[in-house]
Amino acid sequence: MKNTENPIAIFSKWFNEECELTKVKIPSAVCLSTMGIDNFPNARFVSFKEIVDNSFIVTGPLDSRKGIEINNNNNVAITFWWAETERQIRVQGIATTINSKLADRYFEERNINAKAVSSICEQGKELDNAALLEKNIEDKVVEGKRIDRPSNWGGFSIKPIRIEFMEFKETRFHHRKLYEFHNGIWSMKQLQP
């Protein structure tokens, strides 16, 4: 069934409602799922930044496991779970790398420790000497010098093709709506709990 409601607007409303109520430290945490190069799915929590051009933005090293997997197969999923409002949002979409200007902006917003870690660490690689790596990061922070965005650090814009909203109910008759994007138009169907 065609629907004039924009699921991106619904997402924004729900996200703002959760942020007003939540007590969790990182309300923007979202589970990003990719298809592994070994054909096993991989899921991990990343930080959702914002919606840009009706796409969901997440950031991180482009040469990490998630970056390699997205480069190999850019069909991804992100899943939000919000405890205060008891809502879940599932998004399936196509990931593309964000431009360097946007990546610079997100990197600049990071705190000094996050910048130091991103500039020194090779995310997901085997660790030989944790104490030495931690000292190198601490030294970089203590230097207090400007830390520029490493060339391997960026982000992904996830253009949704499906967005499912679920509101949990004590009766277990959860309210579920699935929006799908076809030929430039969102359509909606209600799903059984």
Please tell me about this protein's structure:
Helix 4 (112-120) crosses helix 5. The protein has 193 residues and is α+β, with helices and mostly antiparallel strands. It has helices spanning 7-21, 65-72, 100-108, 112-120, 130-143, and strands at 29-35, 41-52, 55-61, 75-82, 87-97, 153-167, 175-182, 185-191. It has one domain (7-111, 151-191): Pnp Oxidase, Chain A (Roll), CATH 2.30.110.10. Strands 1-2-3-6-5-4 form a six-stranded antiparallel beta barrel.
What is the CA-CA span between the terminal residues? 19 Å
Radius of gyration: 19 Å
Main sheet makeup: 6 strands, antiparallel, barrel
CATH topology group: Pnp Oxidase, Chain A
Number of strands: 8
Count of folded domains:
1
| Shape field | globular
CATH C-level: Mainly Beta
Oligomer: single chain
Query: Unreliable stretches, pLDDT < 50, 5 or more residues?
Result: none
Number of separate helices: 5
The chain-level structural class is alpha+beta
What string gives the helices and strands in order?
HEEEHEEHHHEEE
Strand content: 35-45%
Name the strands of the widest sheet in spatial order.
1-2-3-6-5-4
Brief summary of the model shown:
With 193 residues, the chain is an alpha+beta fold. The protein has helices spanning 7-21, 65-72, 100-108, 112-120, 130-143, and strands at residues 29-35, 41-52, 55-61, 75-82, 87-97, 153-167, 175-182, 185-191. It has one domain (7-111, 151-191): Pnp Oxidase, Chain A (Roll).
